[in-house]
């Protein structure tokens, strides 16, 4: 495990700032340590010899200033550590969220992994920045200054320090190798635990109905036990390595002390430089010993930041064009300046569109043209790819082929132009009105009633829903979700409205009413594209596009 991942410095401005400010603080701290050791040695020797150079009060003042500077730098380190951790976490979270949004719908990053990484994973950077990195910077910057000061006073002690100091990093490297394995195993276990919890929570009612809840609790118990035992293993390695490093540090200081003692007794050395080096020697080893002690509490942060950086550095897939990259390519080819707003012409145009999931085609090639004002129905067998086509239009799934609206390539970057409701209503806790206005809260309040009327919402907009929108029937929830998409379409004047199975839970009369209302919505100057199995909605559409199933290898 590397003590500091250079990618962190490359990626994070805050981390670079931390290192520069830390370097300056370390120099200040080293200077204060040298000044304190010199002043104390001068005072003691002066008092013994009856002649304090410059006067005892001056020396005491120097000692007080040096001690104050050390205390101040200690406090500044605390502040720098927490501020640095906060900023770096925010930067990494921001970058990761951006990357995960690009990757939405990909299986490579599971929800549990993302949640663990973004939450407790990056929180572990507090220890890393708060305790470990300050000591690492001190070791890199202050230790050489202290060694040079000791060498200047007594070259033999300087030489001993130069010989024994590298032993500690060697021990640390050996311990680091052992730690890496146990730490990675523990991180994997934590992720497995989160994954298990998330799956079980998501499907709890199903598991209970099918009598599988007990088996799942046994599974969680097993994973928890494994996590507990791997935590104990990490702790064992931590204690052992702490002991080893303390021993190595103490023996090294003892070596310097013994050599000085022998030479003082033999009269080969003056008392003042000997005392100065003796006072300074523990300070020389202190940062490196602290690095060892803080290393283990920081490894969780190191491991999480490694994973975050791996994810950020992961190569984009080759071959098939990803949603947002397709936009850029198409925009460049058409020479357009603002791919989102320029060149409004021509409605929806789809050529040879194939949606990819995990790099594999899941739809047959599709051609489609739709003009503004049209209600278009995508129909086809279950699994033929209707939802996947909508996902590609939203930039949630990779695709090949051309897909543009009014001459602008559709995908992640144009998502804000599209109003959408999915197959599952996905309502949130709060009032029906808040659910409908979600994301467009500033819109004209009159639009709420308009959208509710289009979607046939007949429940009181002030009614409060429970967590995950609990409190409505399936059909009611579906209509609220459609109302939300319609509200957004009206609020942002979206040229494209995508609705996935908007009438699947409605009776025939309500379906007919919604079909008419959606056609009217289209007539107001937008394309309304619905994926549907229902004849009633398809019959009302201006255009019906049958989706063929992809031929799979
Ligand atoms: N997230 C995903 N990852 C991988 N494959 C997927 C994913 N979602 C869908 N698929 C696959 O893509 C194909 C098309 O699925 P899609 O949901 O688009 O079909 P659909 O026509 O909307 O089906 P339905 O009418 O049942 O909703 C299916 O074979 C499915 O297995």
TrEMBL record:
Membrane-spanning residues: 20-48, 54-77, 159-179, 237-264
UniProt main location, coarse: membrane
Domain ABC transporter: start-end pairs: 348-553
Listed Basic and acidic residues bias regions: 314-330
GO biological process: cysteine transport
ABC transmembrane type-1 domain segment(s): 20-300
Region (Disordered): 314-343
Molecular functions (GO terms): ABC-type transporter activity; ATP binding; ATP hydrolysis activity
Name of the protein in question: Thiol reductant ABC exporter subunit CydD
Naturally occurring in which organism (per UniProt): Agromyces kandeliae
Designated gene of the protein: cydD
